[in-house]
Amino acid sequence: MSRPYTENHQLAYLYRDHHGWLQGLLRRRLGCVDTAADLAQDAFVRLLKKPRRFDSFEGARAYLSVMAKGLCVDHWRRQDIERAWRETLAARPEGSVPSLEHQQIVLETLCEVDAMLQRLPEKVAATFIGSQLQGKPYRQIAEELNVSERMVKKYMAQAVLQCALIDSGLDEGS
Fold first, then answer.
1. Could you give the domains of the chain?
2. CA-to-CA distance for 14 and 37, rounded, in angstroms?
3. Whole-prediction pTM value?
């Protein structure tokens, strides 16, 4: 089938022609019917928010296949973050565990910061992690990255700007 998807009905055709296939692809990769269904819906919600034009059935399927890979990677990264967060909570004394609402806020923030770090250039992300998570001084980070301290300050400014965008709700990855 190689008809072009027109602007007017593109998403409806895309959904009809590809939803089952996409959900099956995700199910095979993830091994979970429910998660596959959720991620397939997420794919079409993304297309609803940011429409794309496809010239053919094959082009749409190729794009959805790439999107599926990204959704799986995002899902696995989130699982890793959730696991680390649960381990952190389990290591805390019982009386110092935050409320469920606070736990969810922290988890969402961790996921947003992780997504931000993935979008940043490697040296910018390494600078942010070195400074904010590992407590390294700029001098040490500069030596490790083989750049000047001035460059480390610029990298930190870029990372802090991205954090501010997350905080303000203007994050481009949302």
1. 1-97 (1.10.1740), 98-174 (1.10.10.10)
2. 16
3. 0.71
